[in-house]
Amino acid sequence: MARIDWTDRQVWLEPAVWAHLFLSFEGRIPRLPFWVAAVVLNVFAFIGDRLAMDAGGHPAAAVVGLAFLYPSLALAIKRAHDRGHSDLYLLFLFLPAFLVSLLQVLGYFDSVGPMGPVLSVLGLWVLVALIALVIDLGLLRGETGDNRYGPDPLA
What we know:
Blueprint: H1 15-23, H2 31-67, H3 69-83, H4 87-105, H5 116-139
Helix pairs in contact: 2-3, 2-4, 3-4, 4-5
């Protein structure tokens, strides 16, 4: 994709920009596009979750959550690249959310029973990972200048 001018307000009207944000694992993005896309993605994920809960309960909601994993990863990876982090950095942070969703699809959706302690630990891991993601990807500026993932998106 050609270089995106994130300071241009018209950029948000281009479908290719949204496709790049949610489908591509390449390049870097600054904080503002990350936050805008994250809010949009989470609004749709919340609506999908509510509809799935009404239609099929926890397993259906977990499937919807897994469907939103790909665009979430695409967005986070580009932001992590801007911070100079590798893709593996996010594996540690996204793994617990994936495991919780997978366990919910398999029918383990409460803390009662033999999987209760596992779900509790994973839930705590998800919380810590979410805080780390918000601070690192959402609040801290990316690397200045070019890095191994591409040119500075703000330059």
